[in-house]
Amino acid sequence: MITITGATGALNGATADHLLDHLPASRLTVVTRDPARAARFAERGVTVRHGDYDDPAGLVEAFAGSDRLLLVSSNDPGGDTVRQHRNAVQAAASAGVGHVFYTSHQGAGAASPFVPAQHHAATEDLLAESGLRWTSLRNGFYAHSLQWLLGPWPETGTVTLPADGPVSWTAREDAAEAAAALLLQETPTEGPVTITATAAPTFEELTDRLAERVGRDVGFRLVDAEQWVDGAVAAGQDERMVRFLLGMYEAAAGGWFAGTDPTLRTLLGREPRSAHDALDAVVAGTR
Fold it and tell me: CA-to-CA distance for 57 and 233, rounded, in angstroms?
């Protein structure tokens, strides 16, 4: 049996849908904090169980009987992410799960200026120490994030950022499909697997392409990090979130998201969606 956490979200929900194209519903279980939100899976015959990363004992019951388990990384803004992941990994070990898959991130590392990358690295360490067979899906930065990471350029006419660097922007839809393919492998790859698109353009390069799409000039400007933070806060954004995003731009400038890998293309059997494809949604959002 394959068990998936976070299937009420966009990423693992899409993975569950792809699995149901290949497996009978009786071989799939979804675990969620709110089973009512997983009604669409229950209606198809999928087992739905309650599970919460803050309830270790409940997780053991939720994971029972799992040959393979896909753990989505916590998105609880007020939670202790690493502790929550530790609970999930320990519960998987106690439940006797055969193989754990974890949605990590490209550039996972304790030294990254991007806080989630630090959490992902710590979680991979937990998996390595657990005695479980495991695979971390180091997904590239999700391309739909460009809709807000490019800033308020439609109003200002300029993409203004605190740092720039190459990013292998990856479609979340492709990452979800790749996760399903890995879960279905007869002998899954163990350890970190990098799941990225095949190119890593910079923000400046994307701004040039954006200008072509909208048919007018769009400027690009780098400013001092604190100046950028002050400007965003003055515009009404929460400073904590602004500094969180600053870490992303700084990680990009440091090359943490620069690598590309052919694995995604191989798993999909086609060319992955590109960052340039994602710009269609960015442009559509301005009309």
Answer: 41
